[in-house]
């Protein structure tokens, strides 16, 4: 403690449960600043996974489907999950099998780059499926 006081620095306990306790003579403010910078750098590098949503209709045209698939591939490359929502309007509810076939086609087209996290299920007038990147 006397050595630290003479140097004008702080005595910091590094390992309290060791025999004898390990201490270090250092500037406590500088040490706190460096640990804050290290924590900020770690936060900057971590990626939050978002859920992107792609909305379709059961009678989607081929070109529109390709555009949606291109967007999905981009989302998977960025590391995001994709929620595919199929909305039924009016008499389309009578042909739910067309919606299920479309979601199975999406599943087949993305099987190399994504895995199914939630199987297609009907909720009211919407059919949903969640895909996650591999």
How does this structure look, described?
The protein has four helices and six strands, in the order αββαβαβαββ. With 134 residues, the chain is α+β, with helices and mostly antiparallel strands. A hairpin with a 6-residue loop joins strand 1 (10-15) and strand 2 (22-26). The longest helix is centred in the first third of the chain and has 18 residues, at 28-45. The protein is rod-shaped. It starts with a helix and ends with a strand. The model has no long low-confidence stretch (mean pLDDT 90).
Low-confidence stretches: none
As a percent range, the share of strand residues is 25-35%
Order of helices and strands: HEEHEHEHEE
From the alpha carbons, calculate the radius of gyration and give it in angstroms. Answer: 28 Å
Task: List the keywords.
rod-shaped, 4-stranded mixed beta sheet, 4 helices, alpha+beta, 134 residues
What's the quick description here?
The protein is of the alpha+beta class.
């Amino acid at each position: 403690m006397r050595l630290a006081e003479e140097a004008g620095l702080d005595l910091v306990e590094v390992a309290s449960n060791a025999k004898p306790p390990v201490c270090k003579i250092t500037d406590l403010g500088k040490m706190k600043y460096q640990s804050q910078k290290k924590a900020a750098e770690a936060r900057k590098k971590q990626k939050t996974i978002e859920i992107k949503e792609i909305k379709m209709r059961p009678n989607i045209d081929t070109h529109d489907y390709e555009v949606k698939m291109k967007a999905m591939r981009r989302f998977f490359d960025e590391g995001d999950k994709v929620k595919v929502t199929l909305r039924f309007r009016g008499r389309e509810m009578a042909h739910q099998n067309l919606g299920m076939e479309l979601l199975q086609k999406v599943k087949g087209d993305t099987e190399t780059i994504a895995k199914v996290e939630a199987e297609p299920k009907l909720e009211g007038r919407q059919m949903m499926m969640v895909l996650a990147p591999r």
